[in-house]
Amino acid sequence: MDLDPSRAEISFTTPILLAIPVLVVAALLASRLLAPQRDPREPPFIPHPVPYIGHLLTFLREGGDYFPRLYQRYHHGIFAIPVFSSRIYVLATPAWAQAMHKNFKTLSFNTLIVQAMKMVFDMDEASMNTISRNPNGEDGTREGILLEMHDLMFTSFVQSIDEMNANFLKCWAPHINPLATHGKTETISLWYWLRHHFSIASTDSLYGPQNPLALNPGLEDDVWVFDDNIDKFFLPFPSLTLRKGYQARQRMFDAFVKFAENDGYKHASRIISVRAEVNYKHGISTRMVGYGETSMMFAVLINTVPVTFWLLSYLFADTTLLADVRAEIEACISNTDVSKRIVNVTKLKTQCPLLNSAMRETLRICATMNINRYVTVDTTLTNASEGESYLLKKGNLVMVGANVMHFEPDIFGTDPQRFDARRFLPTLEKGKNDNASGEYTGKALDPAAAYRDGEGKVHGGAFRPFGGGNNICPGRHFAQTEILTVVAMFVAGFDITAADGGKYVPPPFQATKIIAGVVRPARDVEVRVRRRPGVEDVEWVCEM
Hints:
Helices cover 48% and strands 12% of the residues. By secondary structure, the chain is α+β, with helices and mostly antiparallel strands. The protein has a domain at 303-369 and 407-463 and 465-543: CATH 1.10.630.10. A 5-stranded mixed β-sheet has the order 1-2-10-7-3. A 3-stranded antiparallel β-sheet has the order 4-14-13. A 3-stranded mixed β-sheet has the order 5-6-15. Helix 16 (304-316) packs parallel to helix 23. It starts with a helix and ends with a strand. Residues 1-33 and 433-437 have low confidence and may be disordered.
C-alpha cells in the first residue's frame, strides 16, 4: 500500500480539480434558473457571496441579529434578501412598518397562522379545511374561524379584562407570600423560581380548577422545551429529527385534550371559554380543540415571564434606580393592620411613571421579535413620508425588523444599546392630568403607546413589543397587570442579592432564534432573597 502523503493528496484532489469547471458551469446555469429575477419596482436586493442559500444559512446561524447587521451596512429602509427563487422583504424603519399595517388585507398574518396550525400544532385534515376557509376575508365577509376568533378575542379581552386582572391578583399572592418568611433568607434560582410560580399563577387565573399545568407536574417544562424548538417544526420529519421537542409537544397535546374532554373550559375564564365555543361552533373536534389550545401558552407565558425577569434584574442591579422605583411603589400600598399590605395595581399603572418607563425600556431591549406577514397578492407599498413606493410580489414573506428599530439612534438617542429606565418618561407625560400638582393620576397609558422622545416628537410605529396594526396583541393590558404586580411585590417586600451576598448581577442574554419572543437569560442565576425590615411577616394582597 502506498502511504506517501504527497501522492495520496494528489490522487484524492485530482477528481475534485477536474470537477470544479463542471460545478462552476452548473452553478451559473442554476443561478439563471433558480435565482429570483428582480422586478425594477421591487425593493433593492441585498447580495450574498453564496448564491441561492447564502442569506438563509446566515439567517439560520445568526437569527435575529442578521437584519440589524444588513441595515447597518446598506441603510435601506426596505430591502429584499433572495432565498432560492423567492425573497424575504425586510422593513427596517417605522414608516415602512406602518405602510405594511395599512395593507393588512393583502399582507396577511392569518395565512401564516394557517401554516402554523398545520405544521406546529399538528391539526388534522378536517380541522385544516375549516381553518383554511376565508382566512383573510377573501369572500368579502368576516365569516370563517380565524376571523371570528380574532374579533371575539379582542372583544373578550375588553369585556373580561377586570375579571382576568382580579383572577391573576388572587392567584399570584399565594405564590409570593410563603417566600422568605419569619426572617429567613432563601436561596433560589431566580429564573426557574419566577418561571414556575408565574406560569402556575397565570394559567390558574385563565384555566381555573382544571388547569393542565397545575395538574400535570413537568408540563410547565414541556412548554419551554416546545418553544425552544418551535421553529424546527417547520422542517420535515420532526418526529425523527426533533425527539425532545416532539415528545414535549405531544405531552402538552395530551394534557389539553383531557382538559377539553372534561369540559374544563366551562369552569375557566371567559377568554378560554369563548375560544372553545368558537371552535365547537365551526365543527372542530374535541381532540383538535385540545391541540389548538396549546397555542395559548405562547401568548400567555413565553413573553411575559422573561419580561418580568429582566425588569426585576435591571431594578435590583441598580441600587439608585431601585430606591426611586421603590418610593413610587410604596405610595401605592396601604395597610388595614400591621400584618397586611395591599398593593393597588391601578395606581401602579397611573402613578408610577418611572416603573412604567422601566417596563417599556425592558420591552424595547428584550422584546425585539420580528413581525411576519405573507404577501397574498402583488401589493404596492407606499411610504408617504419619504415619497417612495415598492412592489411586493405575491407568495413571499414580509418581516418587520423590530430589532433594527428598537436600537435606532435617530429614534431612541445616541445610546440605544444601554438600558435607561427614564427613556420613556416623556411618553408617560401623556398620563398626567392637566392640574397644578402634575401628578400621574389619569387614565393608564396603553403599554403599546407610541414612543415620545425628550423633544416631544412622537415616533409612531417605532416601539413594537406588542406588534401593531390590525393584529396588535389583544392581551397587552393583562400582561402589563401581571408584570407590574409581580415586580411591585418583589421591589416593595424583598431584597435580592447575589448568592454570595454581593450585588446582584444579571446573567447574559441567550442567543436569539429565527422565531423568537422576548429574549431569555443564557443561564439561571442563584440569588439570596430576604424580606425587607418592617414587612418580614406581612401578608401581601393585590387589588385593582
